[in-house]
Design goal:
Rossmann fold; 2 domains; 6-stranded parallel β-sheet; 43% helix; binds D-glutamic acid
Length: 265
Amino acid sequence: MDNRPIGFFDSGVGGVTVVKETIRIMDKENIVYFGDTKRVPYGEKTPAQLLEFSKQAIGFLLNKNCKLIVIACNTVSANCLPRLKSIYNNIDIVDVISPVVEEAASTAKHNIGVLATRATVKSRAHEQLIKKARPDLNIFGIACPILVHAVEEGFYDSLIPEIALQKYCEGYWDKNIDTYILGCTHYPVALNAIRNVVGQDKNIIDPAKSTALQIQKLLEMKNILAGNATPGYHFYYSGGSENFTNITKTLLGLKEGQYTFTLQG
Ligand code: DGL
């Protein structure tokens, strides 16, 4: 047993979608989360900037004595994973792209749309991994940067993400996409809007589920699952407004006294 926390980080509130699923399947784990709200969006940053920001976030989480690091951000997973794994080679790091490969390869029929940030689309990380398992699939990266802002602003259930997505998908309606990967951890928050635009019948893959299962598998394998009767959830954010706190509370439906929020930096 190991009651040290699991550490998560993202550019903002998006990674909370992965935390939510983690808490759902492992209710005895302490969690520390860092949302870099001062520097969101990560999708418009260079790989060098992303690496620098990730090193700062991981350094922070290691100072909080985390037993495992979860990169709850596709943009960082897509652009920095090998580098981060080689820098921090004495702690396990879970990303949010490798866990979706199996589900994508086993459920997609012909054509996949990866809804993601510009930096993730540019990296073609999903395509490279999925094609190893299913070379027959066609994979289209569709950058949807406004969705991150719509979620950070709390406008996820409005017409704003729907109108933006209509525009972003304009060139793809003739591609017969049967499966969409939510290739940004912010996007599951706007799932209703996404379904309204891409169609209710489409296969939609949210990385949160497979990532949480991956975390569980790793903790079991290493025999470091926690046994906290009343686990604590500690959220840190680097700037911005009250939105981070309010949206996180809404998404997780946490009880008073179970969590803390701290402005960091
Ligand atoms: N939620 C992140 C991702 O999964 C970052 C989005 C952003 O800040 O642009 O890519």
